[in-house]
Amino acid sequence: SDYSTLPLSKLSPGSSYEVSVISLLGLDESDPIDGVVLTLPDPPTDLRAINVTDTKALLLWRPALATVDQYVIVYGSEEVYLISGTLRFPFPSDCSQELMNGVRESGVVEIFPRGKEGKPVRVYCDMETDGGGWTVFQRRKDGKTNFFRGWQEYSKGFGELEGEFWLGNELLHNLTMMTPMSMRVDLRSGSESVYAAYSTFSVDTMKRHYTLRVSGYSGTAGDSMTYHDRRKFSTRDRDPQPFITRCAMSYKGGWWYKNCHEANLNGLYNTHTDHQGVIWTAWKGKDFSIPFAEMKLRPSSFNPRTQG
Prior knowledge:
By secondary structure, the protein is mainly beta.
């Protein structure tokens, strides 16, 4: 061959290298010949789509090691040019981080409460109420979901995220242990709507019966939740409270019962007798079952005025 070759290894992608070659004969050496080697940029990896709906999806990928000017995404026959493919929170831990990633519509998304190494979890985000960024963990709206369930089901969660559901006590514990959380309850009956906000909200471990901590009320619904502060969670098959009345059995829900309740948002839907309904005593008393209830959480440090 008219050419000599030598492979170069351990080069970095998308980098420039100056190369010199000289000839040696005994102790004599030639003048160098100089050149420049430009390595190609490496491709991005781990491409996947999250938050997929019927009309849109959010793409997520690990960026190239090389410094690049832009990424080109081709789907169908269209090309979209991005100056940067970096999300502020590539693995959002809750809906407030999804909001800061640019998601503005309420709906079901994937979050990563345990970080990028943990499994993603599907949740419903409220991006409209009081600045958005709320992770919804309970909803009552039509009575299609049975809330008179056992301990394991309340631990894991049940129902449909677009309809009625309980997100799960284990996930509630994980979410409220990551960072200090606030909590909001939205209630509606016909044309009436009220809310109760709490500046602190947390749920303890399963070993401690998912004990509730809640305080710092403000709002228009009246305070029916502080009564349940420091109470253990009870279900029909597991009631750790020392009271004579088995509250979960008597009032047909899973809840942080005391003796027994001022709020019973997981009670029987559309039941207006025996204090067994969906109840918020400070608003409608104990003989009225509220048609719509939604509970949601958001980091206490979140400032709605800085978003958008």
